[in-house]
């Protein structure tokens, strides 16, 4: 990159002041700044696009590897399932042939009985829910206290009134 130090920037500023003149220098500086800003934004957009492309390629490679692994697992599971089915059919074929002679020796499972579960008991009613179910107008008429009062507020509320003279 271009190495611009303070001394080089000062030299460029003095040359620009002499060549352009003090009247047009601020306008030219704004224009140059705007152009530099646009160039920086363009470079940033290009960098971001390149990064997105690289990430997209990485994701495609990861997707292909995951799909390949899934196909391998699927083939292993299907071969294992086929082996299991074959072995199961061999074992059950041997049992079905032997079950004709040994049917009377099997234990009677109906004599075991059903398990006993505890009887359902309804839970006790929740006192707070029951109090909440009473309407506000009834509470006000019956004198049910719904808000806590401080000691000073209670004295002020229930102090006997003095007879007026």
From TrEMBL:
Keywords carried by this UniProt record: Cell inner membrane, Cell membrane, Membrane, Protein transport, Translocation, Transmembrane, Transmembrane helix, Transport
In the bilayer, the protein is annotated as: Single-pass membrane protein
Q: Which domain of life is it from?
A: Bacteria
Q: Its Gene Ontology biological processes? A: protein transport by the Tat complex
Compartments, record wording:
Cell membrane; Membrane
Q: Which GO terms describe its cellular component?
A: TAT protein transport complex
- GO molecular function (one): protein transmembrane transporter activity
Report the protein's function: Part of the twin-arginine translocation (Tat) system that transports large folded proteins containing a characteristic twin-arginine motif in their signal peptide across membranes. Together with TatC, TatB is part of a receptor directly interacting with Tat signal peptides. TatB may form an oligomeric binding site that transiently accommodates folded Tat precursor proteins before their translocation.
Looking up HAMAP family in the UniProt record yields: TatB
Family the UniProt entry places it in: Belongs to the TatB family.
SUBUNIT field: The Tat system comprises two distinct complexes: a TatABC complex, containing multiple copies of TatA, TatB and TatC subunits, and a separate TatA complex, containing only TatA subunits. Substrates initially bind to the TatABC complex, which probably triggers association of the separate TatA complex to form the active translocon.
What is the protein name for this chain? Sec-independent protein translocase protein TatB
Q: What is the lineage of its organism?
A: Bacteria, Pseudomonadati, Pseudomonadota, Betaproteobacteria, Burkholderiales
